[in-house]
Amino acid sequence: MSSNDPLPAAPAPVTAEPAPVPAPATLEAAATAMATAESIPAPIDPLLAPVLATPVVPRVGQLDASLLDAQLLGMFKEQLTDALSLFKTPWAARYDAELSTLLGILVPLLALASGTSHGYGLSLQNLRYAATTPRIAAHAILAAAAPYAWSRLRAWVQRTCRASVDSAMSKAETAWTVISLVTLVRFLVTGRYRTPLERVMGLRVVPASIATQRTISLAFLHRQMLWNAFTEFLLFALPLYRHLAPRIRRILLRYFPALRFLTSSRLATLAQLPIGTCPVCVAGSPAFQTDPTHAVQDPEVLDKYRANMPVCADPCGCVYCYYCAQVKHAEEVADMDTANDDKGEGGGEEKVEWTCMRCGKGVARIERA
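The chain above was modelled as a monomer; its predicted structure follows.
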């Protein structure tokens, strides 16, 4: 190439053509494909597939629902038995199984009628049955009526001495027990179908609302424990009240004389007795316990409880039986010893006064009338 030849022209820059912009329909299809790809789960164990495919329902909540239903039926049965006991007829105990079956059918059906289609126990646990109302009603009837019918059939077979049939029924009961145990173990694993009847009828328990929590509320258990402790305390304390109440009242009146107004009505009634009648004998009579006002005015009562070996209380001058006055004095001495023992004091000499039942004054000693 000579120097006079022109230089070749520079090659033009190669520019990449812009990629075509996908249409909106293409963008939506791509997004849908990506979401579908992300939502495809990884391979899982076939045994865990039923568990992951159902909502999480606490097993303890389902078992608590069964216990609550049983306790509710027990309370209804106890109240019904107490009401029927007023009629003084033996048929309430004779038809105990029929009453239990009737309540077991009526309570769930009344729940269905009131709109609580999943039962009271499940409702308290925020659970429900994932089934139609007729299927739930059929389950309630079968759960209560089937055991009753089986027990009656078994009793009839035993009365008719059908040994072969009775043996077959015993084997059937054993097989049902094994099936129930297997169903319970499977329920503890998967959390579905508490009983064989629920599995056969396809009654699955699901949360009643999305806001179901796995936390367990112990408020009901706390109330039950407090109520049991309170009733046990009453069973212990009430039998002692009749024996300890008079002694406590005497101790309070001795150390706090201002509290004598607590027995003012009793003193006002006994103050109407004639002088020769012993207040202790009258106060302990059945007539006084029934009608105090009539007893202190009844001539037969007044004549029957006249003071035997009468003594006068000093300084008020009221008349008592010698034995009754000594008993009152001994009770006060015993109460004083008990109070001293509680305080840790010694048993030194102390002048003991007892309260007169007629006038309420303190009695230091007695004299022959």
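Strands lie at 127-129, 205-207, 310-314, 319-321, 354-355, 362-363, 365-368.
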